[in-house]
Protein 1
Amino acid sequence: MKGVHIILMGPPGGGKGTQAKILQDRYNIAQLSTGDMLRAAVKSKTAVGLEAQTIMETGRLVSDDLVMRMISERMKWEDCSKGFILDGFPRTIVQAEMLENLLAEQQRILDKVIEVRVPDDMLVQRIAGRFSCAQCGAGYHDVFQRPRVEGVCDFCGSTRFTRRADDNEKTVRSRLQDYHAQTAPILPYYASKGLLRIIDGSLSIEDVTEQIEKTMAV
Ligand code: ADP
Ligand code: ADP
Ligand code: ZN
């Protein structure tokens, strides 16, 4: 299968979702965020949602099995025919191994793994100010990315916004710990295959996008 297949890696609050949405429009490929999928499942109280809810609230990772079932179903959708950007997945070595099999089965070739690198002390501020449109899901920040018109979503005009239950200082710390202990160890594997590209995620949203695009072009 032809198409573009990218993994966006980075710590919680590092800007993966923000960049993935920009790339989705630019390359006309699907954005697959396991976090968004899990939150949608929790909201609609499906079996997956009920299983994941308590774990997500404490900031731990949900089981590899559950995530794999969810993502493999999602990859069958029509919007994945030209490829996809994986955002927040894989998050463990086991997930990375299972992803490799899944890609091979579907004859998809991984183009690049982009690590958005951001120092830990910046992440707390990013996460504490994060909110999103309750209607279309567009992401915002109290300081760094305010709606153009105060209180109105730039994209859909909604005036309702939400904050994530797990975006508090306590869970941020355990999410960060999990990132360093379980997710970051995947990176050397992709580096050894020559796929890893490291981006400075501490810059502005526009500058990060520009770096990613430069990386995509080579
Ligand atoms: P962030 O945007 O802060 O990186 P996500 O939206 O990606 O967070 O994920 C939110 C929560 O959903 C995680 O803390 C975890 O509990 C769960 N989750 C998301 N993706 C995965 C995954 N690939 N494996 C295990 N748990 C996941
Ligand atoms: P992730 O998906 O990696 O958890 P998000 O994309 O949700 O991260 O970004 C976390 C928060 O930081 C959001 O409120 C977003 O608006 C903001 N943000 C994202 N990228 C940047 C950036 N480069 N500079 C400043 N704020 C950013
Ligand atoms: Zn909106």
Protein 2
Amino acid sequence: MPIIWDPNRRLINIETKTSTYQMKIDEYNNLIHTHYGGKIGDSDMSSEIVYLDRGFSGNPYEAGKKDRTYSLDYLPQEYSCFGTGDFRITGLHVKEANGSKVCSLHYKNHYVCKGLYSIKGLPRIHGNADDDNYETLFVEMTDEVSGLDVTLIYSVIYDLDIIGRSARLRNNGNELLTIEKAASMNLDIPYGNWQWIRYIGRHAMERNIVRSDIYHGVQSVGSVRGTSSHHYQPFSIICKKETNETAGECYGFSFVYSGEHITEIEKDQTGSTRVILGIHPDNFCWRLEQEAELELPQVLLSYSNEGFGKLSRNNHRCINRNIVRGKRSKERRPVLINNWEATYFDFTGEKLIEIAKLAHEMGIELFVMDDGWFGNRNDDNCGLGDWTANEEKLGCSLKELGKKINDIGMEFGIWVEPEMVSENSELYENHPDWVVKTPGRNPNLARNQLVIDFANPEVCDYIIKSLSDILSNAPISYVKWDMNRSICDKHGNSLDADRQGEFSHRYVLGLYRVLETLTTNFEDVLFEGCSGGGGRYDAGMMYYTPQIWLSDNTDPINRLSIQYGSGFGYPVSTMGSHVSASPNHQTGRQTPLNTRTTVAMAGSFGYELDITKLSMEEKQQIKKDIYTFKEYYELIQKGDYYRLSSLEDKCTAWAMVNNDKSEALISVVYHDVEANQLPTHISVPGLDNNIEYNIIYIDHEEIPVHRLSGMALLNGGLSILPSNIEYDSYMIHLVKR
Ligand code: DGJ
């Protein structure tokens, strides 16, 4: 059993395959965090807390009279509260009706349940309740004065070293409580010097890695944009200076939430490191009436003492097995073609059919009609909200177009952006009050569009109805759900003045309700998330949309770093990735077709270019590539992912290894060419030491097949042939002989 209670020492141990998480209820009923890391057997790590009388670190009243060394100002805690002597960053800020802002939680009770905890209205890890691998710990805490009860929840996935942390707040007092900040997780690491890896970016350049020391003071990243954002990821890692791909300690923090978030880190006066992750407090203020409850979103906490590679693979497995849901996510995802970079808004039904026919001949399985098919939307200044097909442009109804695509032999999919409205639209004319804007002020425009208020249940019902009508009346088996701006001017018309601080979180809850309803009612439809590419690429969205358009940047060389950064927290199956035209539309860079293909194949694979303009050789090559992709699909989408290079190397290389290690696929992309080239030499981990592998360069029959053992590939390494073609790439199949 993963969760062990020792009543004598009042210790709770959460055991995963290679980690122990330990907390202790001390003599003052405070819940002290004593260990998270490698295994510790049955030791009580509270013995290693050094109690000292530190100046200006006060003592809780009941302790202070007899023990001046006991202070919440430095003790490692499970969940920190503001105002009662812990002067670090704290997770919970509560205001009582009398204006008091202090809170002090004490242990009341705990219990353990089989299975994983289901959070009402929010995404979370799921798994079969009878599976012994899964167990959940509930620790009930209370603030006796205000009557606030907080249940700390720890859902354990034993085999993946993952703990899903969340919390539930309940007002059991006699008066209103206002929650001003409520983190989902607090982790105190009492000792050691640590580094922080976070992912920063911007539109079309998402998830660049920044790694630096955690210094004394407070550091944070977050988003107040209404979405998780292109700019800062709700996934980050804490590690030792020496931690690398294959060795060293690291902790992963992945927020299963798609709205505003903050990760805060403080190294305090004693050198201890506190990490807090939760909903960003800037736009958050929740009225918790008597007997009301507030469920907080989940954080996936993971631990590895074998470097980032293992941490990533455990997170990948967790997302593929315990986050992503739905029939379509388990089936082989179709190879798709999207018309956005082929035509933008400038298309007719005839042009789409021409592309679809050719795509089908090449082996592409799904045709996706992107933006511009509805209302009067012929550019990005109008039409959003009017989800009726522009029959004049399409030359037929949506249903007929879908049928024509089906008759060609392909599935049919559409793009929608349901959270938005253009002023120049019928929806806006009929419901100007549904727009997110502050009374008396003009709202910000972005891409000339406005946000509609998903915090309003009436709006959500309307969206469910209008999308259900579309999906029921045309043969649509794929939906790309886009969201193309940040949200500001936050104010919800359906909320009272004293509930406006709930707007941002209620918006996300509304979005999740809409997605839950649609994905449940239309289980044959594959949903792909998008927010101008990767503006809402997070584990929360993955619960509803098993793949997400990773970035509006389709340049394969830029994509290498975007995919590399994204891969630390998320599996390739979630990364929408397409082969586009050369020169690339975002960067102007020219790259060979094989490299665009190699890069796009490390994701949910598709095409996004006008294939009717390609040469005969290119068309033939694509046909061959799609055949190759289908052949290696299981390996690419379900294999274990190994990074074989770092961003500083002259090439980017990665491998996918199958379950029984009988096969692997190595991809290598050169960033540059130089004269008198040297080969690249890489060590290949993850294989079976005792297996002999045939090493086959795919699509390079001229390169002779040779053979090495798993042990030799790991310890001796593989030399990758140099190339004198700029941005060239190779895919290399290793197969047990
Ligand atoms: C942004 C998306 O990321 C693109 O792929 C495309 O769908 C456009 N929106 C359409 O407006």
